[in-house]
Design goal:
Uridine Diphospho-n-acetylenolpyruvylglucosamine Reductase, domain 2, 19 strands, Vanillyl-alcohol Oxidase, Chain A, domain 3, globular, 15 helices, binds flavin-adenine dinucleotide, Uridine Diphospho-n-acetylenolpyruvylglucosamine Reductase, domain 3
């Protein structure tokens, strides 16, 4: 659908003056056309794909975004928003105009139960600001250095098991569609656009502002870190903790599997008030870990600890410059144990790498309510998010090798009822997207025609 880029329109100062002339007013922000700015935005966290934008907009207002999008729609120039570029397969890369949303980073309001924030605000910024008022977003991803626009475009899946994903706690969105129109949408108003944009991979509009729910911040967090040499015991205790519903967060992880054996770790956290710490023996009753470590933390250090760890990886391993061809899959209850066991036991050191991780989250299906977040189609109460966070040399060869591996692992998961959480790296055709969205696909195709008739928005996933 995307009309071809008219590169002539996007070269040097001519383009700039044409844009200015057409807008009839100076931009509130700035449009960068110089080589070094364009190169700076040519890769994402994957580090194996490169696409150099023809221009980078640092918007100073929503009107800047509307006008650039209108201009690009007229000339068929692709546009993509960019938050903090943590996706790994070029989802936000574009050879047209890249909109650097970091310049739209105002927290407009924090009320008793909600916050109104620009899409370029990151979750760390919002969490700190909310915490100062005794509040917290209900669903915080493991790492908070992610923009609201970036996670709301995919899901924002936390280790917390009682909260759903970040997209589930959005009350209202402000969106610039592919025609440059500014629309406010919610469950009550323009619901079709709202549900398409949430976990919509940037295909139907650019999120400029979001109203998100907040709740009282927990005071304290008790941690139980459990180690299992045997994966069957690990799954048994994982399920026991899930179904008891006494804990607040849980995830499984594997440290460098293939290198140090396949020891599985289960981390369970219980949020509590200072006056009512959980009874460790009660939480751990009937579980059979080989080792148990109990920890205690305040809430803020707990939810920001991965940001601290990533900062250390940046310093020690130059982590930002490693290739990260990650794989993230939703798995149904019926096959999660079989699939994870198969994959973990066959991982080699190269599959994970120094600075890589393997993670398993679990969620109650009934709390994941947004239709564009595609989940396994069985009717089990729990669904699992399995992530293989590979790190390796930043080369096209390594990227290609891991893309082939990821496609193989995706196909196996698909055969077992799994779906993709597409923040990561799997080569997908349009037929794959149609399969991914199932009976929702015709509705999304129609909405794409309406909201982005020139097909300019976010070409990275190659969906339309
Ligand atoms: C260390 C680490 C830990 C992570 N942990 C989790 C986790 O626990 N749970 C989880 O769900 N995810 C996790 N992620 C993945 C993360 O949620 C996604 O990669 C998310 O998209 C990143 O946000 P970003 O600001 O970096 O987005 P970007 O990579 O900048 O953008 C992602 C996509 O969204 C589009 N986009 C960006 N902003 C907008 C906007 N305003 N409007 C429309 N489209 C937009 C871009 O064009 C691009 O296609 C993790 C990533 C890292 C690096």
């Amino acid at each position: 659908m995307c009309r071809c880029l008219r590169a002539r329109e996007l070269t040097g100062g001519d383009w700039m003056s044409d844009v200015m002339h057409r807008f009839g007013r100076p931009l509130d922000g700035e449009l960068l056309l110089d080589e070094s700015s364009r190169q700076e935005f040519s890769q994402d966290a994957g580090r194996y794909r490169t696409k150099v934008p023809r221009g980078v907009l640092r918007p100073g207002s929503v009107e800047d975004i509307q006008e650039i999008v209108r201009f690009c729609a007229q000339y068929g120039i692709p546009v993509a928003a960019r938050g903090l570029a943590n996706t790994t397969d070029g989802q936000g890369l574009v050879d047209g105009v890249l909109i650097d949303m970091r310049s739209m980073n105002t927290i407009h309001e924090i009320g008793e139960d909600r916050a109104v924030v620009d899409a370029g605000v990151d979750w760390l910024q919002l969490t700190n600001a909310a915490h100062a008022r005794g509040l917290a977003p209900p669903a915080l991803t493991g790492f908070l250095g992610l923009s609201l626009g970036g996670t709301l475009s995919f899901g924002g899946v936390p280790p917390a098991i009682q909260s759903g994903a970040q997209v589930d706690s959005v009350i209202e969105l402000e969106v610039v569609t592919g025609t440059g129109e500014l629309r406010r949408c919610s469950e009550q108003h323009d619901r079709e656009l709202f549900e398409a944009v949430l976990a919509g991979l940037g295909q139907y509009g650019i999120i400029t502002k979001a109203t998100v729910r907040l709740g009282p911040a927990p005071a304290k967090v008790r941690g139980h870190e459990l180690t299992y040499p045997d994966i069957t015991d690990f799954f048994k205790d994982f399920r026991t903790l899930l179904t008891r519903a006494e804990i607040s967060e849980i995830y499984g992880d594997w440290w460098r599997p293939g290198e140090h054996g396949e020891v599985q770790h289960l981390s369970a956290f219980t949020f509590h008030s200072a006056a009512t710490p959980p009874d460790d023996q009660h939480v751990l009753r009937g579980l059979t870990p080989a080792e148990t470590v109990v920890s205690q933390s305040d809430f803020l250090p707990h939810v920001t600890r991965i940001d601290v760890a990533v900062e250390q990886l940046r310093e020690v391993l130059d982590w930002d410059h490693l290739a990260k061809p990650w794989l993230t899959l939703w798995l149904p209850e019926a096959s999660v144990e079989q699939y994870v066991t198969e994959v973990v036991q066959n991982l080699t050191p190269r599959d994970v790498g120094n600075g890589g991780f393997v993670l398993l989250y679990a969620h109650r299906r009934s709390q994941l309510t947004r239709p564009s977040l595609r989940l396994p189609q069985d009717d089990s109460e729990w669904v699992y998010l399995f992530t293989l966070m590979t790190a390796g040399p930043a080369s096209t060869e390594f990227g290609d090798e891991m893309l082939a591996r990821n496609r193989r692992l995706y196909d196996r998961a698909r055969a077992l009822g799994g779906t993709r959480y597409p923040i990561e790296s799997v080569a997908f055709t349009q037929d794959d997207w149609a399969d991914h969205y199932g009976d929702r696909w015709p509705q999304l195709q129609a909405l794409k025609q309406e909201a982005d008739p020139a097909g300019i928005l976010t070409p990275g996933p190659k969906m339309f």
